[in-house]
Specification:
112 residues, 0% strand
């Protein structure tokens, strides 16, 4: 459950970041409030407030807001691409082992 004080701190931090022309991110809000990023991500109320403020800047149609939204999306895409590359590497390492076990003749003696 989110305390009113914590919610107010997060809302004020988002408003101040907007006013200063800075991008509203979980990292920036965490720095401004002294809360951990994990806390901000895991608390559904706090996360919703930050997400709303992040998208509000882009929805306002300002060049700064759109630029910030593009930067956020670019960062997200890069993170996803990194994960895909790691998964592809894992698959490449697993594939030869799997192929060998499939193609290896059965060496167990069968009972007659």
């Amino acid at each position: 459950m989110t305390s009113t004080n914590t919610l107010n701190r997060v809302e004020r931090a988002c408003a101040q970041l907007h006013q200063d022309g800075q991008q509203v991110t979980f990292t920036a809000v965490a720095a401004a409030t002294g809360l951990g990023r994990t806390t901000l991500y895991r608390d559904p109320t706090l996360r919703a407030v930050i997400d709303q403020n992040r998208h509000q800047a882009a929805a306002s149609g300002t060049l700064t807001g759109l630029t910030n939204e593009i930067a956020t999306l670019r960062t997200a895409v890069e993170a996803i691409a990194d994960r895909v590359r790691k998964h592809e590497e894992q698959l490449r390492r697993l594939t030869p082992t799997t192929t060998e076990s499939i193609n290896r003749p059965n060496t167990r003696k069968q009972d007659h």
